[in-house]
Design goal:
Elements (H helix, E strand, L loop, with lengths): L1 H17 L10 H18 L5 H34 L1
Length: 86
């Protein structure tokens, strides 16, 4: 998916540049696409981004942790309620 996104972005950038290029330079479109693709890939790698899959995994871990914390808080409140009764 990421490679497709980068390729699509590179093609779109090259196409937008091609539309304003003189006819004699239009043969450079493939070179432009490859350069844009390399620049985009390098820039995205330097951003230290996580994939959607990694994000979703961490979101599920956080949800389970919140559920566990809620249960523990309820258990603690119940135990405190019992100790107050004695």
């Amino acid at each position: 998916m990421e490679k497709e996104l980068i390729s699509d972005l590179a093609k779109n950038l090259a196409a937008s540049v091609r539309s304003v290029m003189p006819d004699g330079l239009r043969s450079a479109q493939l070179d432009l696409e490859q350069n844009f693709r390399a620049i985009l890939r390098s820039s995205l790698e330097n951003m230290n981004l996580v994939t959607r899959e990694e994000f979703d995994i961490q979101r599920r871990v956080l949800e389970r942790t919140r559920e566990k914390l809620t249960r523990l808080e309820a258990d603690l409140a119940a135990l405190q309620g019992r100790s107050d009764d004695t």
